[in-house]
Amino acid sequence: xxxxxxxxxxxxxxxxxxxxxxxxxxxxxxxxxxxxxxxxxxxxxxxxxxxxxxxxxxxxxxxxxxxxxxxxxxxxxxxxx
Length: 81
Hints:
The chain is α+β, with helices and mostly antiparallel strands. The protein has a single domain (4-80), classed as 3-Layer(aba) Sandwich (Glutaredoxin). The protein is built from 4 helices and 4 strands; from the N terminus they run βααβαββα. The chain has helices spanning 12-28, 31-34, 47-50, 70-80; strands spanning 4-9, 37-42, 58-60, 63-65. It has a 4-stranded mixed beta sheet, with helices on one face. The protein is globular, with a radius of gyration of 12 Å. The N and C termini lie close together (5 Å). 21% of the residues are buried.
């Protein structure tokens, strides 16, 4: 398995869900899969700023998810790993 980069947006609109995401994110991944994920926080290129309904934005490698769900992100990680 290769490393999978996951970035959770920390802009103002997405930041409201960031803490919840970080808590739940750890719970959806197996311990083995967690070692393959590089989790970071950053900027989603202001896509949520221009349209609040896009939040939260999460990037898995080069794929950006608007209104991301944990299920979407988990599937993308499994597909990329």
